[in-house]
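Encode chain A's predicted structure.
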Amino acid sequence: MTDVGFTPQEAARSAARAGLPLPADRHAAVAATANHIHSVVAVLRELDFGQTPPAAAYRTAVEETRDAAV
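Encoded structure for chain A:
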């Protein structure tokens, strides 16, 4: 992937390398989707979660408060 984003030609090459048939009319759409995903992931990587515990900590807390009485 280049600094300017994923190009339709790169999308075609990546699909071919993965063994996925990608019609020529889909190259631009796949490249645009890949670029969007990349931009969202870039924003997520910039977030500072600080002392936020992993999701498993919240699941455990929920399971401990359940009441098995019927």
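The mean pLDDT is 84.
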